[in-house]
Amino acid sequence: MAATTYERLKLHITPEKFYVEACDDGADDVLVIDRVSTEVTLSVKKDIPPSAVTRPIFGILGTIHLVAGNYLIVITKKTKIGEFFNHVIWKATDFDVLSYKKTMLHLTDIQLQDNKTFLAMLNHVLNVDGFYFSTTYDLTHTLQRLSNTSPEFQEMSLLERADQRFVWNGHLLRELSAQPEVHRFALPVLHGFITMHSCSINGKYFDWILISRRSCFRAGVRYYVRGIDSEGHAANFVETEQIVHYNGSRASFVQTRGSIPLFWSQRPNLKYKPLPLINKVANHMDGFQRHFDSQVIIYGKQVIINLVNQKGSEKPLEQAFATMVSSLASGMIRYVAFDFHKECKNMRWDRLSILMDQVAEMQDELSYFLVDSAGMVVASQEGVFRSNCMDCLDRTNVIQSLLARRSLQAQLQRLGVLHVGQKLEEQHDFEKIYKNAWADNANACAKQYAGTGALKTDFTRTGKRTQLGLVMDGWNSLIRYYKNNFSDGFRQLPIIMVVAFSMCIICLLMAGDTWTETLAYVLFWGVASIGTFFIILYNGKDFVDAPRLVQKEKMD
After folding, report:
1. From CA 77, how far away is CA 95, in angstroms rounded?
2. CB within 10 Å: which end of the chain, N or C, has fewer?
3. A GO term (biological process) for this protein (predicted)?
4. 303-457-473-543 Cα dihedral, nearest 10 degrees
5. Angle, CA 271 vertex, CA 270 and CA 275 arms, to 5°
6. What does the pLDDT look like over 207-265, one tens digit per residue?
């Protein structure tokens, strides 16, 4: 079986069945889904009834069971991102959710309302940006992992060979995955970020690619999913790979990010920063060791860069993380603590060079992956930097962009793109592309986990912290506050005015490092107190209905 999925599809709908027709050259396959029995079979084009209603689609995301029964989710719009070693990469931009049931008469009024709510939740998730796919290339694996595979692996379907951590729709495809004969209809979709750029330095043209792969294990939103689970899966785990393609040679540098791998929580409670709570009865070492055992197997050596505050509410987490690393006593794991906010206070972001100098020798030891134009592996990456802050978003992305630039500097020099003594920072056209791409990566990861764009992207885009950046951070913090407290968790709010009052109090308590930062917080939080009041009034029904829906979801 070739490692491809069908690219051109048509969906034919009858009252009894869905027919998904493969329209690629020479294809005669038709996937048939019985809308009554839910049975999935493979047929041929002549079996499609002429009376069927027909529409083009671009992929099957999968199926899901809600209150009303099964639904088929299909991709209805896509945008070309670029070409990856002659493989086209697409972003899915619109979906359709189709019920197997012809009517909803079998539902009670309460079930009908619940089903409507769950559909709205599903569509909300599908409207989050960042779903990518290729019908001919495996996006879930790094270049280094793909270079070390067997011929049998190459013949597997994309779904079989994919890294299941990064198949976002893996659960939705469970019915198709159980039947190998229909795998060419099963499209693995990556959630995260991909950007591709054709660049030129010294008249030499190369492709520069950035891919962030979000893990589907321990998935969830910011304050509701922290730490690790019993299997060692970390919240907001993202693998980011930077790739260079020049004259047939390919180089990559991989980093990871993920929540502090302990059992801890930080549930929203209307405070600007809820207190993190470390579970006092859990076996932290068991989950911690499971996490790093898997990381070492997949990536090799681990250099942990912990960016959380070393005082205040974040201090216990930093101390616990350091203690766990020390207790594990593994020669494959090194721990670096860097108090980002303390070191860079008063907009002294030039002090990030302290951390870069501290880990420079470690980065040289980890190296990067490089394969020449003949397909020979010239260098292998021996391990990864595993960076984290509290959210693994803003501080983490800044550090990852600096580490990636240092690796890229070495790669481009080795490939002959950069001359001896030349610095990437001096290549202004490329620097603009590089900084904007990493800022866009930060925004994508932040929107998927926290619901807003990232903070501190002014530094990533321009190389310096700005007053406007502080103002924008205040605005994004406001949106995060609202979403994390009132949108993410479906919580009931008995006294609406407590929100507006709380936000006014916050602006008085959050004095910044400068008068400008303080003014920004006062301005935005003050305006927010009024805006949020009306937003909550407008959405009041959601808060009233939420406890019943959450309770029903737990019972189901």
Report:
1. 7
2. C
3. phosphatidylinositol dephosphorylation
4. -80
5. 120
6. 999 999 999 998 877 667 889 999 999 999 999 999 999 999 999 999 999 999 999 98
